[in-house]
């Protein structure tokens, strides 16, 4: 029976090749009849039969070149930026077609270069669609086709015999999708896959973020079990004179090293895991588009190597390139319509932003989804992937906008596709959806009050304030990844960003923004300044900040009372010792748990001299971002602090008795427990951190967990 099955399988594969070849031949004949600059006969003219033979020859040569030469060409172009590679897709594909036409006997094929680009794109798309349609009719063939996405080293991960393989887990992070947004999207019919899961197989749980409600802190805590001393998305460290930024490769690998040293554990994904599209590795060996991996020099370790397997299929490359251009055009159109309608609040969406959005919503999504499908078909034990599309769009269009709603629809379709592929995997997969934070709406601090936080600080210090308020950098997680991909500089700082990483020491304050959380540091004085020291140096500063209507509260250290909260009161500034804070007073509006979150951040060695949280209006849910964002996160206030877990019913409740996890570190504990439940093992650490080349002892520079791994394999369709 086994021998007969192999013969039938080989016969089926041969039949599919013949059908795809025949369809490609007909497509080539049709294009030759439609396009004036494309021909399949010489000037002397040939019979219809010879034209058909020439078309078949050209289609076969193009298919063979696409399967054999294209992956080699793409690998050679890995040294160019990822998005430049995407833009070269059409040129490379057209070149292969011209070469295929030259291989037709008697020189019967010819095309203008620009026409060859069009013909090649159509040929790749038709061949891919035909092959997929044929494969879908045969589950085994469909699985084999999708398995090309799996790792080339699949043989190293031998699976137990059928029936003995425990379930595996896929964690899909929907970046920036808050609990309330998910519930509303299900109610509005935007996410039918999630709605069906909620009705049949999954439970929805809300969890509370830390004060620093952003991906750097949340994902570090979730993947590595500790986000201690991560006070914000970006912060200044006086002991090193360096600005840490969560989505910079050098900062990401340092944060990962610190977390691993604190926990003594390699991470959530250390046992046969894969990390896709994340800031951190989670201890996984299999990496693609992981930011901390970009901190290691060398071609093999560059994050853009994760694009290779996806772009090595010319059909994928063409489809993504077309979608990229369409998405950039869609953003431009939506921006223009928003301006014409006079939408408020509104932020600038010009410059590189349309391409950054297209990168996040198309390129990164396609590559990450393909990687996850490959991981499932390879039978990996645990996978954690981040889909950043919603977060990037919501920052600029608003978390409840029509633009963001359309992104949620596309995310749901991607989740449905991955769930379908899981049915063809060699083991059962339990898919967990989760988010790292939400987003809170509101106009920016600058739009509301006509000046930036930096302007306000300088005014309080008696320093000159520029008449032209400068734009604050956006902290969107996808932004730096896209800029690095665009400019091909994932392993080094760029332009002004390099200067920002190590500002010149001096008496002027450093003011940084992380959504609606601001951090103020005085670099010329060591340690964390006290309120009394700040008052002696700048008598008006704290009163200026605390009394501003756009500021909710300040956190500063006091020599007399320990750390204190400062906020507006009836007759001026109110000072409340942090030790006795019970959630009343200025923190009451921010909800339960706010006092504990502030106290925890106050214990961080690198907490800023002054921590500033914007106002929050509970009636409207508005905050004021200190960055150019109308949907923001990073501090306390509203939906940004409420993320979600959507878990299969086979797994235990996140908190026994129906409670809600608090903080990313507790979410890590929950996910680790679920992994242990799937493996049928007692709950506990996975792989201790070893002092090896990849896990250096404390004090050794340049890093930490393995930041290089095997990305997606070559596809040869």
TrEMBL record:
Residues passing through the membrane, by range: 12-35, 47-70, 77-104
InterPro entries assigned to the protein according to its UniProt record, in alphabetical order: Alkaline_phosphatase_core_sf, Phage_holin_4_2, Phosphodiest/P_Trfase
Pfam families: Phage_holin_4_2 (PF04020), Phosphodiest (PF01663)
SUPFAM superfamilies cross-referenced by the UniProt entry: Alkaline phosphatase-like
Disordered: annotated span: 679-717
Keyword NAD: no
UniProt keyword list: Membrane, Transmembrane, Transmembrane helix
Name of the protein described by the UniProt record: Phage holin family protein
Species in which this protein is naturally found: Streptomyces spongiicola
């Amino acid at each position: 029976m086994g021998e007969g099955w192999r013969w039938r399988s080989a016969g089926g594969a041969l039949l599919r090749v013949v059908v795809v070849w025949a369809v490609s031949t007909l497509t080539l004949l049709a294009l030759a009849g439609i396009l004036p600059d494309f021909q399949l006969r010489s000037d002397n003219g040939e019979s219809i039969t010879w034209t058909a033979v020439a078309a078949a020859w050209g289609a076969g040569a193009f298919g063979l070149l696409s399967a054999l030469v294209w992956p080699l060409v793409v690998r050679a172009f890995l040294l160019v930026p990822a998005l430049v590679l995407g833009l070269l897709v059409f040129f490379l594909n057209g070149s292969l077609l011209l070469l295929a036409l030259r291989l037709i006997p008697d020189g019967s094929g010819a095309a203008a270069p620009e026409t060859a680009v069009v013909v090649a794109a159509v040929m790749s798309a038709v061949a891919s669609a035909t092959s997929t349609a044929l494969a879908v009719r045969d589950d085994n063939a469909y699985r084999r086709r999708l398995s090309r996405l799996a790792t080339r080293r699949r043989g190293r991960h031998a699976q137990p015999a059928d029936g003995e393989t425990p379930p595996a887990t896929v964690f899909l992070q929907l970046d920036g999708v808050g609990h309330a947004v998910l519930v509303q999207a299900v109610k509005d019919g935007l996410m039918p896959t999630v709605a069906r899961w909620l009705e049949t197989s999954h439970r929805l749980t809300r969890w509370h973020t830390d004060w620093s409600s952003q991906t750097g802190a949340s994902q570090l805590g979730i993947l590595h079990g500790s986000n201690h001393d991560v006070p914000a998305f970006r912060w200044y460290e006086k002991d090193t004179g360096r600005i840490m930024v969560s989505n910079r490769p050098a900062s990401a690998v340092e944060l990962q090293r610190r977390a691993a040293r604190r926990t003594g554990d390699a991470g959530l994904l250390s046992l046969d895991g894969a990390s896709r599209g994340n800031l951190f590795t989670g201890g996984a060996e299999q990496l693609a588009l992981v930011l901390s991996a970009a901190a290691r020099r060398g071609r093999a370790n560059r994050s853009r190597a994760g694009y290779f397997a996806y772009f090595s299929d010319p059909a994928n490359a063409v489809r993504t390139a077309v979608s990229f251009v369409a998405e950039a055009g869609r953003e431009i159109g939506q921006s223009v319509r928003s301006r014409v309608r006079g939408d408020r609040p509104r932020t600038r969406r010009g410059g590189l932003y349309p391409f950054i959005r297209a990168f996040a919503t198309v390129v990164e999504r396609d590559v990450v989804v393909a990687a996850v499908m490959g991981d499932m078909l390879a039978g990996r034990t645990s996978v954690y992937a981040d889909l950043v599309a919603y977060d990037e769009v919501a920052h600029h269009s608003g978390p409840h906008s029509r633009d963001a709603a359309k992104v949620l629809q596309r995310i749901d379709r991607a989740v449905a596709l991955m769930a379908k592929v899981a049915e063809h995997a060699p083991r059962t997969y339990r898919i967990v959806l989760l988010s790292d934070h939400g987003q809170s709406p509101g106009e920016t601090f600058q739009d509301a009050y006509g000046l930036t936080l930096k302007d306000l600080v300088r005014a309080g210090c008696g320093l000159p304030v520029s008449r032209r308020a400068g734009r604050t950098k956006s902290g969107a997680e996808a932004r730096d990844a896209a800029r690095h991909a665009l400019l091909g500089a994932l392993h080094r700082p760029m332009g002004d960003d390099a200067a920002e990483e190590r500002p010149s020491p001096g008496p002027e304050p450093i003011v940084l923004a992380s959504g609606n959380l601001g951090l103020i540091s005085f670099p010329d004085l060591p340690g964390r300044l006290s309120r009394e020291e700040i008052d002696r140096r700048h008598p008006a500063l704290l009163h200026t900040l605390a009394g501003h209507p756009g500021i909710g509260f300040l956190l500063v250290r006091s020599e007399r009372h320990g750390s204190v909260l400062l906020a507006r009161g009836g007759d001026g500034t109110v000072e409340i010792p942090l030790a006795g804070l019970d959630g009343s007073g200025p923190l009451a509006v921010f909800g339960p748990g706010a006092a504990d979150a502030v106290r925890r951040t106050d214990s961080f060695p690198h907490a800023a001299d002054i921590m500033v949280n914007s106002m929050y209006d509970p009636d409207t849910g508005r905050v004021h971002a200190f960055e150019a964002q109308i949907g923001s996160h990073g501090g306390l206030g509203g939906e940004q602090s409420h993320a979600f877990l959507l878990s299969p019913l086979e797994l235990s409740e996140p908190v026994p008795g129906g409670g809600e996890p608090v903080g990313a570190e507790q979410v890590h504990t929950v996910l680790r427990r679920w992994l242990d439940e799937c493996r049928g093992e007692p709950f506990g650490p996975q792989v201790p951190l070893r002092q090896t080349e990849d896990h250096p002892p404390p004090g050794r520079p340049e890093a930490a967990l393995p930041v290089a791994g095997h990305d997606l394999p070559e596809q040869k369709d």
